[in-house]
Design a protein that fits this description.
The chain has an eight-stranded mixed β-sheet with strand order 1-2-4-3-5-6-7-8, sandwiched between helices. Strand 1 and strand 2 form a beta hairpin. The protein is globular, with a radius of gyration of 18 Å. The C terminus is likely disordered. By secondary structure, it is of the alpha/beta class. It has eleven helices and eight strands. It has one domain: 3-Layer(aba) Sandwich (Rossmann fold), CATH 3.40.50.1820. It is about 40% helix and about 20% strand.
Length: about 280
Amino acid sequence: MLVSERIGQFFLETETGRDRLEYTEYGAGDAWVVLLHGQLMPRRMQQPLARALAAEGLHVVTLDLLGHGRSDRPADPHAYSVQAWAEQVLALLDHLGAAQAVVGGTSLGANVSLEVAVLAPERVRGLIAEMPVLNNALEAGVVAFGSLMLAARFLPFTVTGVRLLTRPVPRGIVPFWAGIALDTLDQRPASVAAVVHGLFFGRVAPHSRQRRAIQAPALVVGHPADPIHPAADAAMLAAELPNATFVRARSILEWRLRPERLDAEAAAFALECWRPRGRVRRVTR
């Protein structure tokens, strides 16, 4: 089924300046879903899921958070934090005239979604959290992204060199996920260092006490054998959230390469969120 797709933008005034954010809408109607990307990845990574959800009648929006994709990329670390990104999601809803939305994302996007539910619970119809980054991911995250921050800050030619090598590759001639990888490598040293710095020196996710107070229905997806996004973090989150459903992916690549099962889970969940309010029973699959 073909769905309409429209690119939009809005501007946000913050303490650090006036920032431009870009998004894509899929479908139409009042059953809103906002999908957020992983750290340093573009919003286009959520395109397959967005199209699948829109084909079910949902109005889906994918957003490039500040410092990512085609949104502005300031070099000031103070511009970046999980709380600031959550405020950008709320600003997007205001811009679209959406009173509520199912908010979800992958990795960083999952954490930002949780923060939205803490900041403005009345705006969140439901949560989709794939690969949340919580306690068990700390060491692997520090190793992976700490090294990246140091390289970007003190060896900027490494980041620039990768960008110069990958940017000329036409995205239309490579497989979709290869194109996403190339887009993820299209970074600027100052902004990528600022993004990681902002994450490291702010809180990565709401505290466990705050997570336990989130009443919105939630779909939590965990991956096996993923060192940066341990399944234990997803299982812990599902146990903390009062109205959560936990779904275990068959592999870390299932939702990327064989998405049908998890697309169906996400669509059924989001549609249920837009039916009259009711308690979502916890199940484990």
